[in-house]
Amino acid sequence: MKKSTWSLFLALSLMSLVFTSCKKDDEVSTKDRLTGKWNLIKMEGSDFSNGTSTPYNEQFEPGSYLQFNSNNSVIVNADGSVEAGIWSVNDNKLTLTDSSDIDDAQTFDIKKLTGNELQIYIKETFSGGDYYEETLFLTK
User: Cβ distance 39 to 140 under 8 Å?
Assistant: First the structure.
């Protein structure tokens, strides 16, 4: 009886290890899920200045996109204006840096990321308490 209990315990332990290992292999990193071309759909936000909030909701022109490449380069085509930069992701933070001005970086919170939908949010505060915040909506 002792031998079969030990064998059962060992078998269950090994099965647990195998299933845990397989699950980790199947996980896709945030970077891998972001890599590719994302169509810019719309931007919703609000400007807060001098105690007044002004909301806005703007559609991007068709053909606007963000192209996240696996080498961390990014191409931004927003309403016909094309720029290049670099991108990085850490946890749920996406940082975009203009390649012509490395001091010009914007960090977004990733609010939603699925196989075909991305929502990123940014809030920037200025001296005096003024700020803007916006969410970009993208699809693959």
Answer: yes
- Cβ neighbours for 136, distance < 8 A, ≥ 6 positions apart: 40, 42, 43, 108, 118, 119, 120, 121
Q: How many CB atoms lie within 10 A of CB 89?
A: 20
Structure-token pair, residue 112: 């939603």
Residues 20-32, mean pLDDT to the nearest whole number: 67
What confidence category does residue 122 fall into, taking pLDDT thresholds of 50, 70 and 90? very high
Q: List the one residue out of 108, 115, 129, 116 whose CA is nearest residue 45.
A: 108
Is the dihedral angle over the CA atoms 101, 107, 135, 51 positive or is it negative? Answer: negative
> Quick check: 85 and 73 in contact, CB under 8 A?
yes
Examine the pLDDT at 12 and tell me if it is beyond 60.
Answer: no
pTM above threshold 0.85? no
Domains and CATH numbers, the chain: 30-139 (2.40.128.20)
Average pLDDT over residues 62-86: 95
